[in-house]
Amino acid sequence: MRSVVAPPRRARRVTATALLEVRDIVVRFGGVTAVGGVSFDVGDGQICGLIGPNGAGKTTLFNCISGFYRPNEGEIRFDGQRITGAPRHRMAGLGIGRTFQNLALFRSLSVRDNVLAGAHHLGRAGFLACALRLPGAVREAAATAGEARRLLALLDLEAVADIPVASLPFGTQKRVELARALISRPRLLLLDEPAGGLNHGEVDDLADLLRRIRAEFSLSILLVEHHMNLVMHVSDKVVALDFGRKIADGTPLEVRTNAEVIAAYLGEAPRERAA
Ligand SMILES: Nc1ncnc2c1ncn2[C@@H]1O[C@H](COP(=O)(O)OP(=O)(O)OP(=O)(O)O)[C@@H](O)[C@H]1O
User: Which residues are in the ABC transporter domain (predicted)?
Assistant: First the structure.
């Protein structure tokens, strides 16, 4: 029986290349070069933090990877496949999930229904099979509901499963977004400022949660984040941007002690946006 929720994943290729390869990405908005030739990799199972001061180009680069922008130059590969400029609606099917900085939930729907909405593209049974409740469609729906229950438990959302998301605190809504992204079983999870709007305790919980998610789902995570403690705490590697250029790429310790990174955050060194 084929499960709609956990389709047999392709066996991981034993390969020297990274899961996500970002190569020489350039993005211009009129006369502004928001990203001026940035390259980096995210390895299989790695958590990679993308940092930089305001206006460094993080969101622009993130939007290229998640299919919101097509870069002017450069290439993005996922699992060896070129995905540069692939439309965003194809991303989940490719194995790339994401969350949004300002949340993108169906506010009047329950937590459970929001999570289930993340599985819509996985269904193999057609419209007619679903309408007629044919056995294949019923099995798919049951498997999806089971996976949603598992995620609600993992993300501590069981108690609010049937409550409309609009009435829940921001931190809880952020966990709903994570559950919705995870139900499609991504191999790469793109997180846009997951700590934004969270209090200290919630940020600590988030760090634990991200590690648990990585372990439980064997996935890679790329997070754009201003919360430096979180990034340095959870990341295996950190990529730092400034004025559209990559200024550091290494372990959290290497990046934290990098002179150019320190200067960028303190605004000490004379810096120019990439031409
Ligand atoms: N749609 C746009 N049109 C014109 N310029 C843009 C656009 N989006 C971004 N920019 C410019 O590109 C540069 C990089 O912006 P971006 O939002 O990617 O930086 P960021 O690192 O995400 O900043 P922040 O941390 O403040 O969100 C900035 O100078 C910004 O003003």
Answer: 20-268
